[in-house]
Amino acid sequence: GESVGLHLPTLSVQEGDNSIINCAYSNSASDYFIWYKQESGKGPQFIIDIRSNMDKRQGQRVTVLLNKTVKHLSLQIAATQPGDSAVYFCAETPGGGYQKVTFGTGTKLQVIP
Amino acid sequence: DAGVTQSPTHLIKTRGQQVTLRCSPKSGHDTVSWYQQALGQGPQFIFQYYEEEERQRGNFPDRFSGHQFPNYSSELNVNALLLGDSALYLCASSRWGVGETQYFGPGTRLLVL
User: Fold this and answer.
1) Is the pLDDT of residue A68 over 80?
2) Residue B101: which of A49, A97, A98 has the nearest Cβ?
């Protein structure tokens, strides 16, 4: 079936370094791709999204790259901080009025002070 | 401006019982989606409500039902609880339409004994 998955379950990064979290997706019909951050005991927090007709989008300290040719999505976090430690989920949605979001299993980002 | 709120925060039930979880959407939002998140997994879509109707449903049995009220708040009901229903139940709200981001609440942690 359709799925969104991640290559690495855990990523350890030194504080101040850049982090890159990768994700593979299988549904080529998806319209939006989203990154969520989930801290322990909290609900997922929206970070950034990108529409399928784009290949790059930047936010504050974050950049999302979309490669539709190989169905790959990545999240880059610049100057990683201890507060960035969390589980990161990539997700996809078909867009339109129906907004069912399909999540991957998550990558845990550990920032080493 | 209040975000998405959910109640209760924690709940303990026994097998066979029924449970009702509640969600109030973010101000200005008219669409509510429910997700189940098992420990260590990504959230799984249960269903979505808009204009007091179920608009889309994930792969969940009929034991899972919901309702949306005229003020856009929503309830999730689960009948005949099973041990496997133990999870974090997340509510997400959004505005109905193309490209509208879903914002998640903190979730209700349900434990079935």
Assistant:
1) yes
2) A49
